[in-house]
Design a protein that fits this description.
By secondary structure, this protein is an alpha/beta fold. It has 17 helices and eleven strands. The chain has helices at residues 19-29, 54-59, 73-85, 97-100, 105-111, 136-143, 163-186, 196-200, 205-213, 251-261, 275-280, 282-293, 298-308, 318-322, 325-330, 371-379, 383-392; strands spanning 10-13, 33-38, 63-67, 88-91, 116-121, 190-195, 234-239, 242-247, 312-314, 333-338, 342-347. Strand 7 and strand 8 (242-247) form a beta hairpin. Helix 1 (19-29) packs across helix 7 and helix 3 (73-85) crosses helix 5. The longest helix has 24 residues, at 163-186. It is elongated and about 85 Å long.
């Protein structure tokens, strides 16, 4: 098998909660050496019990971990010293946080002009919203995601997954890799400014299509139906034991579905003749599909549709997902035994190269576990030196 694509890259991961740590995790799963830098109290997702948070467990494996107190002058000197030998520093603090301590992008690139300084924030480092406090739900709200989710006539809903945090982390990873590629050509480092809000905007493609279809006015919330109400069938349909998702984006899909339903005459009915007329008669279209699915199990509907060439999937629960044989066969999920959570399943990585086997996920290391090893390697410090740093309040 080939070498990991980012082997030899050293990353200082100052990430907090989901956004930054996920970018760091993707870098680690791509072969980079990722050193997680935490305050002496640990980053927020660890919690008071150390590393007992399952999300922390998911996002911080394969990372060494050290502590630094940015409020200490000696701690800030450690950051500069580490940055001189690192390739990447990533953080997702509020804009200006690292500058406040004198270890922001300008200071660190002065110390190491080849450094890729990567920051991810809610709304970016420029613009009138720069200093707004941001978490996933607030960025969902500001980005329009909440306004288009739910049913018409009912209150809006946030999206279930932390999509702004994770999309921000993915874009942070992608921009870091892009900057490293440019550095290979130019020798220059970079200052990266990734906003969670910017990252989520492309997910509004269907909603913006609806917005312009309705003449630049806000479209209704459409629940599980197509955002612009322009495709039918496009819905979640009840079965005897749950629900399935079915979409007929092409007329050929619809013809195949009518055969499966035993309703071939619907193809010649002018109400269902094409995509536009089916959308105009959405209630009748959905009713016909529901009459078929409701008498079957979701597995039966799924198998019939797959065999018949109709896009369909069962609505899987979290229990279904963590035990999904496909995801395990691909290696997208990994089974392990955690000292607190017991037998668990953790995601690996979606970043795949055919001749490279991703590393096996690991559980996070204890807070500051690598202080002696890392500070010894980077600065030649002995155990006594590291203890002195601790007594100074630097780590």
């Amino acid at each position: 098998m080939g070498e990991q694509p980012l082997a030899g890259v050293t990353v200082l991961d100052f990430g907090q909660i989901y956004n930054g740590p996920y970018a760091g995790y993707l870098l680690a799963m791509s072969g980079a050496r990722v050193i997680k830098v935490e305050s002496p109290l640990g980053e927020g997702l660890r919690g008071a019990t150390g590393s007992e948070s399952f999300p922390f467990t998911m996002l911080n494996g394969l990372k060494e971990t050290i502590t630094i107190n940015l409020k200490s002058e000696a701690g800030r000197e450690l950051v500069v010293g580490l940055a001189k030998r690192a390739d990447v520093l990533l953080e997702n603090f509020r804009p200006g946080t690292m500058d406040k301590f004198g270890v922001g992008a300008q200071a660190l690139l002065k110390a190491n002009p080849r450094l890729v300084y990567a920051a991810s924030t809610g709304y970016g480092s420029s613009g009138p919203h720069r200093d707004y406090l941001a978490m996933d739900i607030t960025v969902q709200a500001m980005s329009g995601v909440v306004s288009i989710t739910g049913n018409d006539g009912e209150p809006p809903l946030k999206s279930g997954p932390a999509l702004c945090d994770m999309l921000g982390g993915i874009h942070l990873y992608a921009t870091i890799v892009s900057a490293l590629y440019r550095r290979e050509q130019t020798g220059k480092g970079a200052v990266i400014d990734v906003a969670m809000q910017d990252s989520v905007l492309p997910t509004l493609a269907s909603a913006l299509g609806a917005y312009y279809r309705f003449g630049g006015t806000n479209p209704p919330r459409t629940g599980n139906r197509h955002q612009a109400l322009g495709v039918a069938p496009y819905n979640l349909y009840p079965c005897s034991d749950g629900h399935v998702a079915i979409i007929c984006v092409r007329d050929g899909h619809w013809r195949k579905l009518t055969d499966l339903m035993g309703r071939p005459e619907m193809v010649d009915d002018p109400r269902f003749a094409d995509k536009q007329t089916r959308a105009e008669h959405m209630e009748e279209t959905d009713a016909a599909v529901e009459a078929w699915t409701s008498s079957l199990t979701k597995d039966e509907v799924f198998r019939f549709c797959q065999a018949g060439g109709v896009p369909c999937a069962p609505v899987q629960s979290l229990d279904d997902v963590v035990n999904d044989p496909h995801l395990h066969a691909r290696g997208a999920l990994h089974r392990a035994t955690h000292p607190v959570f017991g037998d668990v399943v953790v995601p690996t990585t979606a970043l795949r190269i055919r001749d490279v086997e991703p590393p096996t996920p690991q559980f996070p290391r204890k807070l500051g576990q690598d202080n002696v090893a890392v500070y010894g390697e980077f600065f030649g410090h002995s155990e006594q030196d590291v203890q002195a740093l601790k007594e100074q309040g630097a780590i």
